[in-house]
Design a protein that fits this description.
697 residues; alpha/beta; OB fold (Dihydrolipoamide Acetyltransferase, E2P); Rossmann fold; 7-stranded parallel beta sheet; 6-stranded parallel beta sheet; binds adenosine-5'-diphosphate; binds magnesium ion
Length: 697
């Protein structure tokens, strides 16, 4: 039960003044949550800030920088009637003059904004045009009274269509006013040593910075909040670990019969890395300790087969395995890979997703309950209460970060002492694995199966779009299938969906009905339908937002175009690229960027051209993020963290881990009064699942 103390933070944001039902949807999109709460808004981090403290004279103002100028209006030069020329206004101070330029404005409007002879404050970017200083469309034009009210430093937030920055700021003011008085959530000594503000002050300073550092990830307010988030994560891990070991394990020992048959049925030999990972997993399965192991391996590194062979060991011991994947597509794909080989070896498999219904579902459930099925592959459907196993010994969770802790554990709870194998295709740099996942054992597939063709990766400027479309036509005529990825547009007022549909439309004009579109706002079934048409080859071009990111396998897709590659994180680009190069034909990946590129962006794209090793890329990514790019992109490459930027806050993880261990060791149920702040913390950082875990015992 959530302490009532926190209720104001869990109120829907429509409870805030000025947010009516009409704004609920744009806020839901902004905050990436169906019914956003006050808390979600408070944790919406700035993406940058405007600094209006620079108030040079006109003569001193540096071109291409944002400045705030105090000027007198000298003259207006409106366009001649009927001409599309801009309206020009000459303004000046004692040191020089400047032309303010407005395009497309109704007659008389600028004269009202900038009355002749009046003093005004202008905020905006100065540029040089034919040696003349000018400012096009100032962000603000204010008189003295208006300027007095304007904060000197103002955070800028990622926005979505239909939601101007002003709404977000006003809503945040309401949200800040609702923060209740809370006890200190973190160990007092730590807070003192770090010089952190308390929770409420941290949020207030972040959203109303007095200094730029207050709004930056490296500043004390953000660091404190990041630490809270990291700590909540570490406590969750520590609790899972302590649960797993308290539940105890069972030893399952096979006789090698099914394993040998599967190995014989496979059209390839295991890689050394697969062999090693499998040996580690088998040792866990055979031991009487409970397994909690993370299997990390790049897309295409062959994790599924490792999972299958682990299931074989368990089946030889007369017990069952469940493999849970986050989407219908992935579950089916695993099943299709696994089923023929399993059948050849005499391992009984089944698939269970939301799609199995009625009689068919009953049969599947009966076979599971009576132990006739050795391995079931499925989605969340596997954790429904009526799914009962005769003797579940191994739970495998693919793309583990897509599941909540509770979901993973409820699968494990379907057996008496279930071993857990968590799989992820997000390579995590070595430097972070121990700190982030230190509570788990850990295996890696660093090596890819042989025979993979390297993907020819090139960076191409968006200016050459025509050539790209032309080349795409050639590839299609040669029988290729193509992914065309459009990014999630965050900071502009065009929605991601609009950008992707527009691209699909222009491609359709050239290539006709063979172009399909799949995006994040489609329902699961709709997405599956389009994906299936692409998989079957009926669609030749698939335009997609990043929803194809997870392990979809279409071996005949040999061309991947990623639009606005500069907006993606390296790790994400690498994952996307992993969708091609899966068959025997040579594949190409075109990274379309909009120039000019920053040095960091150039370095990023270069790394991707040079390497296909996901682990190396993740390490480089982390290094580059640590160096430049202070504000970073939202794609931190580390799913599950909304506040912490691991490139900035990695130094906090070890401390979070130590505090989590002390806490859980001292009070495994977090039930003593001293643990109250930790409970509040877990609530705040949405570890609801963790809380239920505590009460479930
Ligand atoms: P992951 O789940 O790690 O992304 P998969 O398990 O889907 O990768 O494997 C990708 C492809 O590689 C599959 O088609 C699989 O059959 C194949 N594969 C797996 N292991 C090997 C191997 N040792 N040699 C050759 N091909 C392999
Ligand atoms: Mg996989």
């Amino acid at each position: 039960m959530r302490p009532t103390l926190l209720d104001p933070l869990f109120a829907p944001i429509t409870a805030l003044k000025g947010i009516g039902p009409k704004l609920e949807r744009p806020f839901a999109r902004l905050l990436n949550r169906d019914a956003p709460r006050v808390l979600d808004l408070l944790f919406h981090m700035p993406s940058s800030f405007v600094d209006r403290r620079a108030r040079p004279t006109i003569a001193d103002a540096i071109p291409e920088t944002d400045v705030t100028l105090k000027v007198t209006v000298e003259a207006h030069y409106p366009p001649a009637p009927g001409r599309r020329a801009p309206h020009r206004t000459l303004v000046a101070d004692q040191t020089g003059d400047l032309t303010v330029v407005h395009f497309n404005v109704e007659a008389g409007r600028i004269e009202r904004l900038l009355p002749l002879g009046a003093t005004r404050w202008l905020c905006g970017r100065i540029s040089l045009f034919d040696g003349m200083r000018q400012m096009a469309h100032p962000d603000r034009i204010l008189d003295e009274a208006g300027f007095a009210k304007l904060p000197a430093i103002e955070p800028v937030y990622p926005l979505v269509e239909g939601l101007a920055g002003g709404y977000v700021r006003r809503a945040l003011d309401g949200a800040l006013a609702r923060i209740p008085a809370l006890p200190e959530l973190l160990p007092a000594a730590l807070v003192a040593a770090q010089g952190w503000p308390d929770f409420a002050t941290a949020l207030a300073r972040l959203h109303h910075p007095k200094n730029p550092i207050d709004a930056l990830p490296s500043g004390a307010p953000w660091r404190r909040l990041a630490f809270q988030e990291l700590l909540a994560h570490q406590i969750t891990l520590a609790l899972v670990r302590s649960r797993q070991s308290r539940a105890g394990g069972r030893s399952s020992v096979g006789d090698g019969r099914l394993t040998r048959q599967i190995l014989a049925a496979l059209p390839f030999a295991l890689t050394e890395a697969q062999g090693q990972a499998l040996a580690q997993i088998r040792a866990d399965i055979r031991s009487d300790k409970a397994m909690l192991r993370l299997l990390q391996g790049d897309v295409g590194s062959g994790k599924t087969v490792v999972g299958l062979l682990a299931a074989a060991e368990v089946a030889e011991a007369g017990r069952q395995t469940a493999l849970m994947a986050p989407t219908e597509i992935l579950a089916r794909q695993h099943y299709e890979t696994i089923a023929p080989i399993a059948a050849a070896a005499g391992l009984a498999t089944a698939v269970l997703t939301g799609r199995e219904k009625g009689r068919a579902r009953e049969v599947i459930l009966k076979d599971l309950a009576e132990g006739r099925t050795h391995l079931v592959v499925g989605t969340h459907a596997l954790i429904q209460p009526d799914v009962v196993f005769a003797d579940l010994a191994l739970a495998i969770v693919d793309e583990q970060h897509r599941f909540g802790v509770e979901q993973r554990l409820s699968l494990a709870r379907k057996g008496p002492a279930t071993d857990m194998l968590l799989m992820t295709a997000t390579p995590i740099p070595r430097t972070l694995v121990l700190t982030l996942f230190g509570d788990m054992d850990h295996s890696e597939l660093r090596q890819k199966p042989p025979g993979r063709q390297p993907v020819d990766t090139r960076a191409v400027s968006l200016d050459r779009l025509d050539e790209v479309v032309h080349g795409l036509g050639r590839a299609l005529r040669a029988g290729a299938q193509v992914y065309w990825i459009c990014p999630l547009v965050e900071e502009s007022d065009v929605s991601d969906l609009a950008a992707a549909s527009e691209r699909a439309e222009t491609l359709r004009q050239v290539f006709g009905d063979t172009v399909g579109l799949v995006h994040g706002r489609m329902s699961g079934a709709e997405k599956d339908k389009v994906m299936a048409r692409f998989q079957s080859g009926e669609l030749r071009v698939l335009v997609a937002t990043t929803v194809v990111e997870v392990g979809v396998n279409v071996p005949s897709a040999t061309l991947m175009v990623i639009e606005h590659a500069e907006r993606f994180g390296l790790a994400q680009l690498h994952q996307l690229r992993g969708r091609v190069g899966r068959g025997s034909k040579a594949s190409t990946c075109l990274l379309l960027y909009r120039g000019p590129l920053s040095e960091t962006a150039k370095a990023r794209l270069a790394i991707l051209r040079e390497s296909e090793d996901g682990f190396a890329i993740a390490e480089e990514d982390l290094r580059l993020r640590g160096e430049g790019d202070v504000l970073g992109t939202r794609q931190s490459g580390f799913p599950g963290f909304g506040i912490a930027r691991l490139e900035m806050h990695a130094d906090l993880v070890a401390t979070a881990r130590a505090v989590a261990h002390e806490t859980v060791q001292a009070d495994p149920e977090l039930e003593s009064p001293a643990s109250m702040p930790m409970r509040l913390l877990l609530h705040l950082h949405d570890s609801n699942a963790t809380m239920r875990l505590l009460s479930a015992g």
